Amino acid sequence: MFRFLHSSDLHLGKRFGNFSGDLPSRLREARHGVIARLAQHAREQGAATILLAGDTFDTETPAPDVRRQALAEMRHHAPLRWVLLPGNHDSLQATQLWATLTAEAPDNVILATQARPLDLAPGVVLLPAPCTTRRPGRDLTEWMDAQPTPEGTLRLGLAHGAIRSFSEDAVAGDVIAPDRARRAGLAYLALGDWHGAVEIDPRTRYSGTPEPDRFKHEAPGTALLVSLAGASALPEVTALPTASFAWRDLDLHLLEGDDPLLALAAVLPEARARRQTLARLIATGRTRLAGQAALAGAVAEAAPDFAFLELVEAGLVTACEADDLDLIDRGGALREAANALLAEAGDASRSAAEREVARAALARLYSYAQGAAP
Amino acid sequence: MKISALRLFNVKRFAQRGVAIEGIGNGVNVLCAVNEFGKSTSFEALHALFFQPHSGTPGDVQRLRPYSGGSPLVEADIATEEGRYRLTKQYYGGRFARVTDLATGRLVAQADEAEAFIAGLIRGGTAGPAGLLWVRQGLTGIEKRSKSEEDSEKQVRASLLESVQGEVEAVTGGRRMAEIMAAAQEALAELVTPSGKPKANGRYAAAIDARDRLTAQEQRLAEDVRVLREALDRRAVAVKRLAELDDAGERQARRKAVETAQASFDAAKAQGEALRTAEAEWKLARERRTAAERELTAFRTVLATSDAHWAALQGAEQRRDEAVARRHAASAGVEQAHAEVAAAEAAEQEARQRLARVEAALKARETLARHAALSERLAGAEAARQALEGAQARLAVETLPAGAVEELQALEIDIAKLRAVEEAARPSVAIAYQPGAASPVLMDATPLREGEERGYEGQAQLVIPGLGTLTLRSNRPPQDNSRLEKALARHRALLAAMGVATLAAARARQIRAQQIESEARELQGRLALLAPEGLARLREAAAMPGAVEAEAPGPDEDPAPLRASLAATEARRTLARQALRAAEPLRARADEAFVEAETALAALRAERTQIEAILGPAEARGARLQELSERFAERDRHSAAAEAQLQRLRATVIDLESAEAALRRSRSVEDAADKEAATLREAIAGLNAQIGTRSDEAVEEMWGEAKEALAAASARVEGFAAEIRVLQRLASALEAARAQARDLYLKPVMAELTPLLGLLFDDAAITFDDKTLLPQTLRRNGHEEDVERLSGGMREQLSVLTRLAFARLLARDGRPAPVILDDALVYSDDDRIERMFDALHRQSRDQQIIVFSCRQRAFQKLGGNVLTMTDWQP
User: Fold this and answer.
1) For residue B468, how many other CB atoms are within 10 A of its CB?
2) B176 touching A (Cβ < 8 Å)
3) Do A18 and B722 touch (CB under 8 A)?
4) What are the tens digits of pLDDT across the range B96-144?
5) CA dist list (Å): B176 to A335, B144, B150, B770
6) How many domains does chain A have?
7) Mutate to test the interface with A, among B169, B695, B723 (most CBs of A within 10 A)
8) Do A215 and A125 fall within a single domain?
9) To the nearest whole angstrom, how far is the Cα of B782 from the nearest Cα of chain A?
């Protein structure tokens, strides 16, 4: 029985400039913290080796503190072994990075910078496919097919890149053969690049990033504990939670009669979890002018609970009835203005942008009218 | 729309009972009753019927309910262009609303449909003022106002200003519109300036600044990253290339290429030298062949011309001999002529002496006679002497030094001879070999043939096989031409001294001198004849007549024969001299011919000597020709062989230039590789430093951060832009609605209002602000007053007139609406009230006006249709 931890895409040093305040620092620190959490899982699960399938660093030239602190943390967890594979973000083209890492890496950090077999344990061989450049444009795992190993050896593959459309860069296209594990006789092929955990086949998996960094993937960050009883036995894979931040798209679908505030309360996570949550509230469906105003107010009210909370109401249609307009005015110029905006919002001959502006202007008129003296 | 009846039940003070006001007609209708009679209740009920939905219970509806509770019911009959209807509403319990057609009793609409029907009646479109125009005591509209507001004096004044503004607000949105617009403008002003530019220090401007700053930062970092990546790529390429260059196999291959090229180049150089030697040999052989050919050709040519030359030489000798003979003959002729002259002269002399003697005797005899003739003689003598002197003068010019011509002639011959001798005077050598002589003697490396006479200049060396080398020296001063030159110099000097160009010219002059000389001699003789004792004696004799002593008489002989004899001798002498004169040129010509022949002969002889030298002895000539031919043939072969050898070498030679180029190329490849490796090492060192610095700065992380921050900032800017668009759209929609309302209603209303004002205030005029369309100033008695200072009555009147103006406008638009006044003229004095009544009546021709008033007395003067309230039970 051979056990190891499969993870990838740590993206150490990522800065999150799209957020403000101290959130970028917290997110960045959380990425560093993943190292310790992976080590703890490995110790608890009795795995001696942690395979990192590429993109350990976010850039080809991480800041020295990022690099050194990561290596120091890994050294701290000796005798656990860390195997670092160059990915597309930290490819071998970053000669400076890998030369420095080679010079600084402690004994328990193995740099899989060459496509040649690495002995992990007696009878266990790792076949790594390091990314030579940012976009190699070819299947770097092909050599594994022809690489001989002694009879009965447990062959493990380690690679970084896209199979089908799983690339994070969306330009690489179809690169790694989906059936590489079968062709190369691999007991397990550990893949990186896709930030969500995906099972390609029983022997081929993307571990996903242990600490999510975007809203794209719904699943929480995990690492995979892989147990192999033998070369022919199917791997036994367990996902272990590793993330400290949750990135969530909250779906808020409203029917016209629904109370937006009740619906909102139902989808928001419990209060204590909000500090570690980045959430986008995706509002869809229909609501009245009053409901929309109430929803926007409620979201603004709840935002301080969260690491990040944003209301996306592009998909929300604001219904407007005559009595909504009566609440603005029953007659006169105000009502005329409201009528004109409502007509413009529903005028199919106008561009969507113009209609949206008219709709928003009507909503604003509504809220001003409620605030103004009757 | 017109109202024909109003009924209400269980409304306010009419708890559980009802009243009806029926028979409301066109024009002015007046319900005049004391307070608390129910006028205001009716007014409010009517208002509720038209403006309060039956389903709601807002404050206005609550106020309709009696203290005892119950469900208020309000009903009105109306007439429109479409027909007559009855509108009924009940609030609270059993609430309903319905519309029935009075003509047919049919239910037209109920509940919400009925509300919609009523709304259509009063609104006729939301833009216009209410279809019912209401004026209450002190109030200008139906808007809610606080009690205190209504009561305050200030508000009274303000509301009076709004006596017109009330209706204005009804269509322009009023204060709410103003508030909303102010709110929208304020929100907008926080972001942008009135001209639409981002407001300085505003949030929008800050967001734009942040975005622009981030854009610049992102670009700078992107450039840094690009530079870094480029450096990384370049270093990777350089390292790879260096590895290739440093590869031992490659290095070895380059070295080997150089060595191979060097060997090839050396071989080519050696071959080149051999080729040059062969070329030199070939050139030598060719030259030798050419020399032999030339010699052979020369020999053949000379041989061919030898016989002709010989014949010419013979001819020249013969001509010389002939010339000599002719000269001898000519000389003999001259000698003979001289002898003849001498003989003739001697004979003449003798004849003359004999004659003289005879004549002397004769003279003596004829002394006297002669005496006479003396003078004649003297004259003749003088003439002769004169002629003589002339001849002597000419002679002095023409005479040549004695022997000079002969010397010249001798010199010319001598020169010819010297020249001939010169030619033939070179020393020469010849050998006769003993029979069996082993090999020929070599003279100046050329074999000396048997009998061959070979000349030389200065010295010559004879190599005699078996003996040694024999040196011949002529020891002659080289080119000893002194004699010839001396002769030539003398020749030239002679010619110059004589003043002639040639010997012939000298000869001609000599002959001329001789002629003059003989002429002179003749004249001398004649002078001597005429004055034998000299001229002086003759002159004396001639001068002294008779002084002559007669001498002894001489032989008496007839002088005539003597004279004949003398004449004959003289003729003979003349002939002789002529013959001499003819003979002398002949001899000169013979001399010339001789010189000419001699000269030609000398030249031919010299040539002959040369020919002989070339050809050698006649008997050896055949062998010589043979030898020359063979030598030429042999050298020709040799030359051909050398050329063939040369061609062979040329054909097999390696191109030296190619070999050198190949060597240069292979060397340059090696040098370039070394140089490139050095350059690469330098470049890598430079890139290392650059990359090290950049990597430590973590530019890529910063770039990623900047990109994300830029996206966020751009979204924020776009959010602001969208907000601005929304606010601008809202502001423009509000502005447009207000402007439209003004244009559609207020301007026409003002147009309607102006004549009404004139009706009421004949002594005053009100001006309106163009923009706000509100009363601005009142002009009365030539004084302008602020409109706020108008009295309460006047404002009240203005308010009523404004409604009337609106009503007129609506009626003109085909939407007539009743004007309802509830105690509307409380402040007006009697005079004004009457005027107002006039105005109302004037309006009422096509307008329904319903007036509720408690001022029974005052309103009696109004006239019109008097309404009464009756009990009514639904």
Assistant:
1) 9
2) yes
3) no
4) 888 898 888 888 888 888 887 777 776 554 444 444 555 544 443 333 4
5) 11, 13, 18, 22
6) 2
7) B695
8) yes
9) 38
Please write the tens of the pLDDT for every residue from B651-705: 877 778 888 888 888 888 888 888 888 888 888 888 888 877 777 777 888 888 8
Please give, rounded to a whole number of angstroms, the shortest distance from the CA of B764 to a CA of chain A. Answer: 32
Residue owning tokens 């030429």: B632
Whether B584 contacts B506, CB under 8 Å: no
pLDDT at B160 over 60: no
Residue ranges per domain, chain B? 2-153+815-871, 306-427+483-614, 429-475
Please give the backbone phi and psi of residue B842, each rounded to the nearest 5 degrees, phi first. Answer: -60, -40
Select the residue from B726, B735, B772 to test the A interface by mutation, using most A Cβ atoms within 10 A: B726
Using alpha carbons, select from A333, A327, A328, A299 the residue that is nearest to residue A313.
A299
Residue of A13, A15, A95 lying closest to B235 (CB–CB): A95
Taking the CA of residue B19 and the nearest CA in chain A, the distance in Å comes to 30
CA distance A183 to chain B (A): 32
Contact check, Cβ <8 Å, B698/A334: no
Q: Tokens in use for B21? A: 């006001």
Predicted ipTM of the assembly: 0.77
Provide, as residue numbers in chain A, all residues whose Cβ is less than 8 Å from the Cβ of B233. 93
Q: Which of A208, A241, A274 is the last residue of a domain?
A: A241
Statement to judge: residues A29 and A174 lie in one domain: yes
The answer on A260 and A120 residing in a single domain is: no
Among candidates B377, B383, B382, B366, which has minimal Cα distance to B542? B377
Same domain, A85 and A221: yes
Are A166 and A196 found together in one domain? yes
Q: Does B177 contact A at CB distance below 8 Å?
A: yes
CB B548 within 8 A of CB B541: yes
Nearest to A159 by CA among A88, A230, A64: A88
Could you report the per-residue pLDDT of B531-549, keeping only the tens digit for each? 777 778 878 777 765 544 5
Same domain, A122 and A269: no
Same domain membership, residue A349 and residue A219:
no
Is residue A256 located within the same domain as residue A218? Answer: no
Identify the CATH assignment for B2-153+815-871 out of 1.10.150.390, 3.90.550.10, 3.20.10.10, 3.40.50.300: 3.40.50.300
Range of the domain at A67: 2-241
**CATH code where residue A227 lies:** 3.60.21.10
Domain boundary among A241, A263, A296: A241
Specify which of A104-108, B94-98, B170-174, B197-201 reaches the highest per-range mean pLDDT. Answer: A104-108
CB contact under 8 A, A17 and B235: no
Closest CA to B279 of B649, B632, B637: B649
